[in-house]
Amino acid sequence: MINRMALFSDETESFRTPYEPVKGDKVTITIRTMANGVTRAYAVLNGIKSEMSKAYVKGMFDYYTLTFICPDDAVNYYFILYDDDDKVCYNKLGWAENNQSEYNFSFVPGFKVPDWAKGAVVYQIFVDRFLNGDPTNDVEDNEYWYTGSHVHKIKNWNKYPDGLDVSNFYGGDLQGVRQKLDYLQDLGVEAIYFNPLFVSPSNHKYDTQDYGYIDPHIAIIEEDEDSRMQDWEKHNGYARRYIKRVTSQVNLEKSNEYFAGLVKEAHERGIRIIIDGVFNHCGSFNKWMDKEGIYLYKEGFEEGAYQSVISPYRSYFKFDRPNENYSSYEGWWNYDTLPKLNYEQSEELTDYILDTGAKWVSAPYNVDGWRLDVAADLGHSPEFNHKFWKMFRKKVRAANPDAFIFAEYYGDPAPWFNGKEWDSVMNYDAFMEPVTWFLTGMEKHSDYRDDSRLGDGIRFFENMFKNMSRFPRPSLDSALNELSNHDHSRFLTRTNRVIGRTETLGPAAAGIGIDKRVFALAVVIQMTWVGSPGIYYGDEAGQVGWTDPDSRRTYPWGREDKQLIELHKKFIALRKKLHCLKKGSIKKLDAGNGYIAYARFDEVDCAIVVVNVSDSEIKLGLPVWEAGVSTGSKITLEAATDPKADLLNEHRVKYGRAHICLAAKTACVYSYTFPHGGHSHKQTT
Description:
Elements: E1 16-17, E2 26-34, E3 40-45, E4 48-51, E5 53-58, E6 61-69, E7 75-83, E8 86-91, E9 94-96, E10 105-107, E11 122-125, E12 145-146, E13 149-150, E14 152-153, E15 168-169, H1 174-179, H2 181-187, E16 191-194, E17 198-199, E18 210-214, H3 225-228, H4 240-247, H5 249-268, E19 272-277, H6 347-360, E20 369-372, H7 382-399, E21 404-407, E22 424-425, H8 428-440, H9 457-468, H10 473-477, E23 480-482, H11 491-494, H12 502-505, H13 516-528, E24 532-536, H14 562-577, H15 580-583, E25 585-592, E26 595-601, E27 605-612, E28 618-622, E29 634-640, E30 650-652, E31 658-662, E32 666-673
Parallel strand pairs: 11-16, 11-24, 14-15, 16-19, 19-20, 20-21, 21-22, 23-24
Antiparallel strand pairs: 1-2, 2-6, 3-4, 3-7, 5-6, 7-8, 7-10, 8-9, 12-13, 17-18, 25-26, 26-27, 27-32, 28-31, 29-30, 29-32
C-alpha cells in the first residue's frame, strides 16, 4: 500500500527547476515518496505518460525525477505512482485516486514575475488618512464643489469618517509618508502600495482627473502671481485655488518632482513603490470629459467630450445620444462622476493609457509596479480586456523589466495568468476570505456571519488549496495576502463577530467586543503563508472600522496599540529569518475543530505553524515527518502570540511526531534546520 502522506510535489524550486522555465531549458520535475514505497513513478506531461527515475534517497524519502526540454507552449502535468497492489495520482491538491485535470501542475514558458515581489511584505497606504506632513497643501473648506456638496477640511484627525465621506479631507499627504519611512523600515516593510495618487477631486482618487500628474493636495502647492490672478468666477463658482491646481502645469510638475524624490528615498531604504492604476473609468472632472466645465475656455485645453460633440475626446466615452452636447453617458456602476472609458472606439485613448503605464515605471519616477483597479472590467468584452492587458504588460515591461503588475480581481484568476497579462492579484479567494471565515466566521464586509465556518480547519484547507491551485506558483508567491483594505471592514472589527455597518450600528460599535488574540492569529497566518503579506495602514496599530468608508479611518498616531505593532515586527522579522517562508513549500499537517497546523519547508529549513482559535487548550501530535523532520530531531519555538502559548522551547520528535500543547486562542511557529540541504532535488546519491 502506498503511503499517501509521504507523497509530495509542488511547483517550488525544490520540486521543479528552473522555477520559471523558458523555451529550450532543461526542466526537471520531482516527486517525493516514502523510501521503497513505490515500484514505479510516472509523470503525465501534456497527456503523455513517461516513466520517472529514482534520482536519490534523502532520509526516509525517495525522490523521482523526469527531465525534459521546455517547449514553447504551456505545460501541464501530474504524477501516477504504483506499487504491487496500489495506484495513486498526485496533482496540486495532493493525492487522488483519480486525477482531475483542472488541478494539474502547470507553467507557461517565459512567464516571469519580478523576484522582489515574491513574498515581499507590502504596506498599503490610503494617503489622505495616513499622516498630514504638510498642512500648507491641505484642501480647504468650500474650496470646490464635488458630488453635491462643497469639500470639507477635517480638522479633527481622529474624527470618524462620515457615511458620505468622499469630499472630506483629513490632510494626509506624501510628506507624511516620507516622514514615516523610518517607521515603515523598522516595521520591516519591503514595498508600499499607494491607493491612487493622480489629480482627483475626491479623497479616494479613484476618479482620475489627470493621469499625468500627482495631485498637489498630497504633494506640492506652489502659489504664483499668474495663477493667483486667474478669473475663476466664470467657472461655476469653483474656487480659484482648485482652478489653479488643475490647470497650472508648473505647479503640477512640482508635485511630480516631489513624488520622484519620495520614490528615490524609498529605494535607498530598500522599499519598492507600487501605484494604483484606475483605467476602467476616470472622473467627470477629467479634462477629457469636463462635465463640470473646469477646463472650458482655458488656454491650452480642448473642449471636453461632455461640452461638445466635436471634442477630440468624444470617442473616449460612450454617449447615449452621440450627436448631442451635454448628453448622458456610460458610467461605472451608473455613477456619472465615474465615466467609463471606451477603449474599443479610440486607439488614441488606448495609446495614452499604455504610455501612462510606461511613464510612471520609467525615470525619473521609477515606480516598481502597478495595481490595476477592476482590471477584468476594463473594456466591454473579455476578448478586448485580454488584448489590452497583453499590450499593457508588453509596454510596461519594455520600460521597466522589473515592474510588477497585479490586479484587483474576485473569482478564478487562472485565465489571466497566461504569462502575457497580469503577474498576480489581490488575493481574496485564496487568502482573505478563508482566513476570515476560519478565524471569525464573518464575511469580509461584516455583512453576514456563518457560525458553521468558524474554526472549521478542514474546510479552511479545502478552500485555501482549491483556490491556490488556480495560480501558477510565481503568481501565488507574489499574490497580495491582505487581512483588510480600503474596500472591506477592518479585520480587527471582524473579530467582534457582529453584523453591521457604520450607518446601521454607528462607528463606535466597530471597536466593541473585538478580540486582539484572534487578530494576532490572523497575523501569524499572514506572515507564514505562501504569498506577499499586505498590511493595510493602521491595522498593525489596532485600527478598527466597518466596511468602506469606515475602513478608511486615519492612522491612530499617538494612540497606537504598541503591542500589536511589536507583534507585527516580530513575525515580519521571523518571516525574513526563516528561508522557507519566502518561497517554500506548504503542507497541511493537521486540522480539526478550532485549529490548523501546517509546514513550510524548502532545502534550507522548515517552519511548523500551529493556530488554535478555539476557547480550549489543545494537545496535538503533529506528523512533522511529512515535512522532512526526522525522528530524534528537535523543533524549536521561534515565536508565539502569547508568551504562555507553549511553555516549552523545544519539542523532541518521536516516531515522526512532535507533541505540542497549545493554549486557547494562541499560535506558535517552530523551526527546524535541515542538516544537509533537506529537500533539494539537486542532490543525488
